[in-house]
Model the fold of this input.
Amino acid sequence: MKLFSLTAHEILDLLKAKKVKAEDVVSSVKERIDSVETRVHAYARVFETREIASEGNENLFPIPIAVKDNICIKDNETTCASKILKGFKPPYDATVIAKLKGAGAVFTGNANMDEFAFGSSCETSCFGPTRNPWDLERVPGGSSGGSAAAVAADETIWAIGSDTGGSIRQPAALCGVVGLKPTYGLVSRYGLIAFASSLDQIGPITKDVRDSALLLNIIGGYDENDSTSVDTPAKDYTKSLISDIKGIKIGIPKEYFIEGIDPEVGLSVKAAIEQLRSLGAIVKEVSLPHTEYAVATYYITATAEASSNLARFDGVQYGLRSIPKEQRKNPIVDMYEETRNQGFGLEAKRRIMLGTYALSSGYYDAYYLRALKVRTLIKQDLDKVFGDFDAIVTPTSPTTAFKIGERMDDPVSMYLSDIYTIPANLSGIPAISIPCGFSKNNLPIGLQIMAKAFNEEMIFKIAYTYEQNTGWHKKRAGI
Amino acid sequence: MPDEKKQFETVIGLEVHLQLKTKSKIFCGCKNTFGGEPNTQTCPVCLGLPGSLPVLNRKVLEYAIKTGLALNCKINSFIKFDRKNYYYPDLPKAYQISQYDSPVCYDGFVLVPQEKGEEKKIRLTRAHLEEDAGKLMHDHNANCSLVDYNRTGTPLLEIVTQPDIRSAQEAYDYLQILKLTLQYLDVSDCDMEKGSLRCDANISLRVMGEEKLGVKTELKNMNSFKAVKSALLFEERRQEGILQSGGKITQETRLWDENKQMTFTMRSKEEAHDYRYFPDPDLVPFVIEEKAIKGIAENLPELPFDKCNRIKKEYDLSDYDAWVLVGSLETADFFEACAKLHRNYKSVCNWISGPLLQEANARKTGISGLKIEPKRFVEIVKKSEDGSLSNLGAKDVLKQALCSDKSIEQIISEKGLAQVSDDATLEKIADEVIKANLSVVEQIKSGDEKPLGFLVGQAMKKTQGKANPKKIGEIIKRRL
Done:
């Protein structure tokens, strides 16, 4: 048994039993990175030095962890996989990084991602695409594709990513790992380089559900540095890992199983739902009537916020500064235009323009304000269902991993990758993706479980029960 | 028939940006102080570094509400912030956190004292919170610009009037009373030179009697109240000149040039920004409890108008006297402390508004910067009243007392300033004066008493002002 292939909780057990040392785990993961990284390219940068906090302290988690390249680690280059942030070394730690350091985490590197988290395939990264460990010709999903691929390829024990419209769950589904988007406000966003502030949330990407709960224990909790953080009592999520879902009411939204869904995905998810029923859950069809507007609502809200969040990348203080050889307008405007033209990739430019348009005078009411209203309707749909049900179960992604390059010229089909994951972001509720089967050509399929805000316990309970009774998570990518 | 010259009415509205002097900045824990080496009072939040997030300083909100209540505003209990998007190197996030459609204070007014105890009401549209930007410094030799972010994140309250102001002088008077009120509240230094109070003005002209507002220009870059007045006077004349000759005013922003005493075009309406305001998703809206607003209202200090009216009544002073005293909080406080020790209020008031304020102004310290305290001050006033000090002597003693801790008695004896009132000395001086001015004496003896004053003057001169003038006059008259 190779140490790199273990879960964090398995390693913690070995550490406690003094059967292994933290440094053995770290060097095992390093060897694994050395052997497969050139093929997977899960990392934007791999760290050379890996400090291990004092060994033998049983309260510490000296577990190797990959960090998405949009979460600030003090004095470490953090670039959101964009040329425009080249050389930017934040002088501070994100709150989740401070918490991880406090827990003794060992950082393996910055995981690759879509530039500024704009994408569902990890192809918009300035470092080039990450490949899916199950099929190197295919994408790992995105935007946290590097984090998911690193976990799936055993290039880390676990990872953190960020999820704005599905960016943790969709790559987790496509890579056959577990990805949780916590409730908005449960994990501090301080130090997460913002894409869409009202939607972004940091969460764990792990090999199984227990690790997901363990990692959430570390990174969750109120932070006075984040005004959107919610002051709720600390919980031990591992307490919800009970394999018993008898009597739990699960809603299946009928709007999620219509055209566009890959039949193999549909079959696997339906089989998973049947399994939940056979394990004692009460399963009924429900309706989320505004589902069809979710993607449009999301792309207006998210791009509007992004256009403002990304305005600070102007060449003045940090990152790339590019000045044209010949003066065009005036020196400062020339610098802004050239820096942003050189620094941002195609998709970033597309989204900045979309968002700028949606906020422009004369269009604000028709787009941004309208989107806010529809967002409320989508949230009300979910609230209504959660009045009668404990959870909603859906596919995570309408398809399995697609081929690299396949959707790059068709942004709308790319945007539709997030059709099932977006509602959780728009309404702030928690959602997880867990493996629920494989396609004929051996590509992972993900099952999404959503629950009420701050009811991560319910999600963990259902996910754990399913996982314990199926074992899909034990199947590893044969790389 | 010659064209009749049209009569125009001037319409002015003012926007005041006020730096609030809370201990820390509006959205981070950095110190909120003026000056300091460039870029030393910054952190990831006020530098707008990627990943950083703002957290509202509740004290700033308290100051804003306090100010709003003092300016007779309604308070919006729903607190929401918006982003104002524009690019400038002194704005590190490329957006300013401000309040767009939900200002914390709205619908207020300021009463501006007029002559004869009357007052004019200037209505306020709103007062909203926002963050200040940094400062650009241009190095022309090195052909580059530098940015100092120390000021970034300083809390600002923008106070906007209705177009209720009708002249440059009225604008000046409004700023004076606004500044005084703010100083009473102790929420800002209100120093235009240091930029803690900044004022932009909107001005338009319309034919007298018309309702519809004319096309306005916005004036910027005035760095004193006087400059605001001068800029408005200039712009009033410029616009009138254009309108009288049948021209049209262009809606634009104009910069005041202090050296040339003129305004110049900065940007026209066509170049105006689309700020793309939208609610800041990093700052969740919240509701302040009525109780908290009430608490602030109950703790408001006495404001200039109230203090003026009370002082007028309580100490039986004129409107003019009372306004001089309330012209600064420390003057009013000093007066009231003195009034407790001495009941001749008019005399105390005169001594404060005259000699004391003269000295304070000359030294640019204010009364608190002088060493005099009410007890010794009142002693001097009393000694001048009972004749033990001459008017001049008392002023001299006051000057000495301002820069030492010595007792008044000690100053008088050291300087030999005590008024000479004993008969023997005065009679001797009277005789000397009479002897030296025989022709004048003859004149008086022949019935013309006018030159008597001249003789008293001579006696005062001889004693370096120490002789009791009333007494020496009587003695000279007796001895003629």
Summary: Residues 365-388 of chain A form the longest helix (24 residues). The mean pLDDT of chain A is 95. DSSP finds 14 helices and eleven strands in chain A. The CA atoms of residues 251 and 284 of chain A lie 5 Å apart.
